[in-house]
Amino acid sequence: MNFNFSKKIDKIKTNYIIHNNGYDIINKPVIVSSKGSFLKSISGEKYFDPGLGAGSQILGYSNKKITDAIKNQIEKGSIYLHNNLNIQSFTEKLTEILPSQFTNFVYCNSGSEATQRALRIARAATGRKKIAYFHGGWHGMNEWTMNNDGERFGKFFIPREDGIPKILKKHSILLPYNDDKAFDIIQAYSNELACIIVEPVQGSNPRNDTTDFLDKIQQICKRFDILFILDEIITGFRLGIGGASKLWNLYPDIITYGKIIGGGLPIGLVSLTNEIADRSFGDKSKFVPTGGTFSANPLVATAGLSVLNILGTKDYNYINQLGELLRSLVNSYYKKHGIPLSVIGTNSISRIVFTNQKFKNRMERDYLEQGTQNKQIEFRKKMLDKNILWPNNGILFTGFCNTKNQIEKLATKINETSHEVFNELI
Ligand SMILES: Cc1ncc(COP(=O)(O)O)c(C=O)c1O
Predict the structure, then answer these.
(1) What is the pLDDT, as a whole number, of residue 17?
(2) SS3 for 196?
(3) What are the CA-CA distances from residue 423 to residues 337, 339, 426 (Å)?
(4) How many angstroms separate the CA atoms of 407 and 401, rounded?
(5) Distance 421 CA to ligand 1 centre (A)
(6) Which fold has domain 64-311?
(7) For 69-95, what is each residue's pLDDT tens digit?
């Protein structure tokens, strides 16, 4: 993508390039500080961030209680590499919030690591090799669940990922999402599948009408002793404090968490039922590697405990209603002015899609959005000109730091920008 933003580019002379999808050091503002819903650039420009750190900053950037807790702990140490009180208190708190069957935890340092560990544990517990995952999903950077299996989805564009030998994907089965054809494929591989991993709400296609589909996945998993892994790295502590599993009464074998529970520091967490922990760690004939230098460090545990304590006092209706407000203000404007876009989403998760047609999954979304790439780039560029830093992943989150007024202003700027981008139609 060519992000040639006009006004708001901080020109910094560098001799290096950081290769990271998330950063574009040449064509983006250079951020030097953050507070609440805003990021500040080196040139002093203040940007509203509707992505809130890929959803991780549900309380807002640089929350004072959390930064104070981090400051206090850092003087005592950020890493001990031994059992520590901080991780014990944090884990204790987690068990008060999560579904009661989850009493076993594996810590790591990112969501990507959590899903990687979860898949490994599922394979070890079942003694089976194959894993299944859904098109349009995202489980981070682990090789097993990246979408490079282009063939199955024929004419639909699926990005190719170079650097991942095809052999590594030999045991990964890509399934169509929100589509009953998935169950025929699952049944065909039922004796070989260790697990099925799914997000309760896909960031690429956020919606709340897939609960029956999730329920069917859960049922087929039980039927064939396939482990059901719920990836709650976005939805955990966001759809409600207990995440999707509690809100929608799901009974996964394994849940992965990340983002919010790090309080702004890197974290990944795999939570397991006793039964699964027994089948993987309890069986002394098996060795399932976990751990890592920074895993379960006292600093992240302190930040995590602090965020959980604060979230326990919050009413999630607040952020859900802000999400609803954003969707309704923008969608009603689009309808009134015949702008061919829509905002989809559920609770505090939303996304603008460049079609006003209904679709059931990312595959159909990609199909309907064909040819809108330049409009999408223009939209982001114009939003930046209005001091709104659009998230790279396109997922909009409302948080406890947002006010109603901020969301109304955001909706107005989205509406104005959409109007400008599609002005030839109106
Ligand atoms: C559902 C889901 N799983 C896993 C990940 C990977 O997490 P991380 O970026 O912390 O590695 C993400 C990140 O966006 C995610 O949304």
Answers:
(1) 73
(2) strand
(3) 10, 9, 5
(4) 11
(5) 31
(6) Aspartate Aminotransferase; domain 2 (3.40.640)
(7) 999 999 999 999 999 999 999 999 999
- Look at residue 410 in the predicted model and tell me its pLDDT: 98
Does the domain at residues 31-48+315-425 carry the CATH identifier 3.65.10.10?
Answer: no
Say which residue the tokens 């549900």 belong to.
Answer: 58
* Domain range summary for the chain, segments of one domain joined by +: 31-48+315-425, 64-311
Residue pointed to by tokens 């045991």: 171
What is the number of the ligand 1 atom nearest to the C-alpha of 232?
Answer: 1
For a substitution probing ligand 1, which of 139, 147, 267, 300 has the most ligand atoms within 8 Å of its CB? 139
Q: How far is the C-alpha of 327 from the C-alpha of 342, rounded, in Å?
A: 8
Dist. CA 110–CA 295, nearest whole Å = 10
Q: For residues 177 and 134, is the Cβ–Cβ distance under 8 A?
A: yes
Phi-psi domain of 275 (left: phi exceeds 0; alpha: psi -120 through 50; beta: other): alpha
**Could you tell me where the DSSP H helices lie in 227-281?**
243-247, 274-277
